[in-house]
Write a structure and sequence with these properties.
Blueprint: H1 3-29, E1 39-40, H2 45-62, H3 72-99, H4 103-118, H5 120-125, H6 127-145, H7 149-152, E2 153-154, H8 160-190, H9 196-221, H10 226-239
Antiparallel strand pairs: 1-2
GO molecular function: actin binding
Length: 242
């Protein structure tokens, strides 16, 4: 396995870990006395913004490539990721259009959907123009779809104990994320020219990841009464399937 592939996998794992910890921390936080869980709406705000950010990132890569240097594999990877994220936006549009109370709002969502579907035609002519147009459309959609609280639901209300629980989980998560990011930075800077100093720094980061992983496990499992631990395990089992 090449170093480049290893770095890419570390980056993907860091993103997944952050997302899972944020969700797990929320699940534990709302179990604390005085916390009130969220009331989901028709539009998942995070999922929508996440898909928009993914599209912006992938289409941004198009601007870094020259037409004669981009490989078919790179282009295929970008197209797959953009298509998956665009489908999420499409589903959000359809749900929002069905749930919107005002007819003009429903019509706006349908227009956004038509604009999103029309964009790939530009890609056949000039992929860089397509990327910019699609990003602009998706950003506008994300803003429009998250303006109405009736569509996005009601946010959770966390008690002081819930806030502390969430903070403990996220702090432990960042303890894992930071050395992983540092490893990627070290590998990028040395560009394959390894020496004993570089190896030592990577080993130190590895040790930091192990220590922080133990703290993260404690933060996820060690809270409240036995009854809450049982409930928390049930919630965590559900979170692990995300």
């Amino acid at each position: 396995m090449s170093i480049r592939v290893c770095v890419e996998e570390i980056c993907d794992l860091v993103v997944s870990l952050t997302e899972c910890c944020a969700h797990a921390g929320y699940l534990l936080a709302v179990l604390q006395d005085g916390s009130i869980p969220e009331v989901p709406g028709a539009v998942d705000r995070y999922q929508l913004c996440r898909a928009t950010a993914e599209i912006e990132h992938k289409t941004g890569l198009l601007r870094t490539y020259r037409l004669h240097t981009i490989t078919s594999l790179q282009l295929t990877d970008i197209c797959i990721n953009v298509t998956e994220s665009a489908n999420i936006l499409t589903d959000s549009c359809l749900k929002a259009a069905d749930e919107a109370l005002q007819s003009n709002t429903r019509e706006q969502f349908r227009l956004c959907l038509q604009e999103r579907r029309g964009s790939p035609q530009h890609f056949l002519r000039e992929y860089q123009v397509f990327g910019e147009a699609l990003t602009t459309t998706c950003n506008a959609l994300a803003v429009f779809a998250t303006q109405d609280s009736k569509l996005t639901g009601t946010s959770a209300k966390l008690s002081p104990a819930g806030i502390d629980t969430l903070h403990d989980v996220l702090s432990a998560c960042m303890g894992v994320v930071s050395p992983c990011v540092l490893v990627c930075s070290i590998v990028r800077d040395v560009a394959g020219h390894w020496d004993d100093k570089v190896v030592t720094r990577v080993q130190q980061c590895h040790g930091a990841v192990l220590r922080s992983s133990n703290k993260l496990t404690e933060a996820l499992c060690g809270f409240g009464s036995e009854e809450r631990k049982d409930n928390g395990k049930m919630w965590m089992d559900g979170a692990s399937n995300i």
